[in-house]
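Dear colleagues,

As part of the handover before I leave the project, I'm documenting each prediction I ran so the next person doesn't have to rerun anything. This entry is a single chain, and its sequence is reproduced below.
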Amino acid sequence: MKTQAMEIKHIAVIGAGVMGQGVAYQFAKYDYDITLVDLSEDILANAKKNIRNIERLDKMLHKSASTVNVLDKITLTTELAAISQADFIIENVTENISLKEGLYQQLKAVVADHALLAVNTSAVSITRLAAFLKHPQQVMGIHFMNPVHLKPTVEVIRGFHTSTTTIDVTQSLLQSVQMTGVVVNDLPGFISNRVLMLTVNEAIFALQDSVATVPDIDKIFRECFGHKMGPLETADLIGLDTILYTLDVLLASYNDTKFRPAPLLRKMVDAGLHGRKSGEGFYKYN
């Protein structure tokens, strides 16, 4: 049920990849009007198909009781200017700082003065990106997890200039779609990925060193520690390209070699093995 977020009616989602699809679905499901933006009609057509599948599986497997026709709530467009009417913007561009900075240079001219902007990131500095906009106090980070509609807890990142009002409105918006934000401060990787990336990367190093096989590495984490997924299964779900980008950001930010990506990871990304989204990573998918 919508609470303090009642005044937020129109949400723009920039980036129609895996995370953007999930974010658009989650907010459309709760009756928000969504504008989903990406660079090409082909990307948007693929996103539309995937969102329809997410909706079908959510109703079939997870018994979603939503009566909203999700795709009726989502407008897909390649025009960035379409976000100018949005009350809340969620940016989902991949974890490449050059791409993000190029986008934020354009956003300054199209974001409405009243709008809040959330950077959906697992590592990039909120403070650095907010500096490109007119109102950095209205910028915060939200680190959504994948799949978005099944992971109700997220990190909400407070940048250097982020106001308390921005955090409060963001928390209310999340509550209106049955999600909860844990507020953390702005340092690369925040909590989740600062810790998780080290585990995933070290598991890849162990595989590279032939310490154990892929299934056995994951089995140890599932059966010895009770984790739902092993680190290599998790890497496939997140996307190996995203893992590599994130490690590169952490390495550059902290200048600490503990974040150096495993050569095997870089080799797999170069070969196009990006995990579930490409059909093959450490495992093969139909």
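The first strand starts at residue 10 and ends at 14. The beta strands are 10-14, 33-37, 74-77, 88-91, 116-119, 139-143, 153-158, 180-185.

All the best with the project,
I.
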